[in-house]
Design brief:
The complex is a heterodimer of chains A (115) and B (112). Chain A has strands at 4-7, 10-13, 19-25, 30-38, 45-51, 57-58, 67-73, 76-81, 90-98, 104-106, 110-114. With 115 residues, chain A is mostly beta strands. In chain A, strands 2, 4, 5, 6, 9, 10 and 11 form a seven-stranded mixed sheet that branches. Chain B has 112 residues and is mainly beta. Chain B is 0% helix and 60% strand. Chain B has no helices and eleven strands. In chain B, strands 2, 4, 5, 9, 10 and 11 form a six-stranded mixed sheet that branches. In chain B, strands 1-3-8-7-6 form a five-stranded antiparallel sheet, with no helix packed on it. The termini of chain B are far apart. Classes of the chains: A mainly beta (115), B mainly beta (112). At the A-B interface, β5, β9 and β10 of A face β4, β5, β9 and β10 of B.
């Protein structure tokens, strides 16, 4: 397998603040990264796809100005939830695809709670 | 639009039993299918990946089959153990795309 890390694992913030979540591939270069959101007892819903060096592609219904994605390098992608509200509370998971590969490797997830 | 359905939503079995989890998808034009395991509050662990040209994959006590034409996959777990308790997710990617569409999962409980 491959190792993908996310930081932080858990964050609690006040409504109106911005939160940045990092996703790193520790042992491979990732050409494509995905960000998912998972609400309780629901499956993963794709939010956006990002390729290194280009703008992210957002899924329908996901506000790109609210969920800022930066794929800064082949090993790092960040998701910033701007002006977070309680309804943004969710489990955010990233995944990455190795250069030349097809399998997605998932990070451990970040639990965001907005008060 | 691809839709993935997993049945049952929850399953409880005694330790040692063999079991089958089911996954169906509406669009048979898939690139690959993956089975994942998710423990509560954790990320996903990839269990098996089946390419569209393959019929099955095996890893230890796990065997996954794929019938692309009928839009079905099964995950067979042999000799279940309490440590197998988790939610099992099925996901498919479309032709020419890495994007995965997930089912809602089957929550498995293996009773000692």
């Amino acid at each position: 397998g491959a190792v993908v890390s996310q930081h932080p694992s858990r964050v609690i913030c006040k409504s109106g603040t911005s939160v940045k979540i990092e996703c790193r591939s520790l042992d491979f270069q990732a050409t494509t990264m995905f960000w998912y959101r998972q609400f309780p007892k629901q499956s993963l819903m794709l939010m956006a796809t990002s390729n290194e060096g280009s703008k992210a592609t957002y899924e329908q219904g996901v506000e790109k100005d609210k969920f800022l994605i930066n794929h800064a390098s082949l090993t790092l992608s960040t998701l910033t939830v701007t002006s977070a509200h309680p309804e943004d509370s969710s489990f955010y998971i990233c995944s990455e695809v190795k250069r030349g590969g097809v399998e997605q490797f998932f990070g451990p997830g970040t639990r965001l709670t907005v008060l | 639009k691809q839709e993935v359905t997993q049945i049952p939503a929850a399953l409880s079995v005694p330790e040692g039993e063999n079991l089958v989890l089911n996954c169906s998808f509406t669009d048979s034009a898939i690139y690959n299918l993956q089975w994942f395991r998710q423990d509560p509050g954790k990320g996903l662990t990839s269990l098996l990946l089946i390419q569209s040209s393959q019929r099955e994959q095996t890893s230890g006590r796990l065997n996954a089959s794929l019938d692309k034409s009928s839009g079905r996959s099964t995950l067979y777990i042999a000799a279940s153990q309490p440590g197998d308790s988790a939610t099992y997710l099925c996901a498919v990617s479309g032709a020419g795309s890495y994007q995965l569409t997930f089912g809602k999962g089957t929550k498995l409980s293996v009773i000692p």
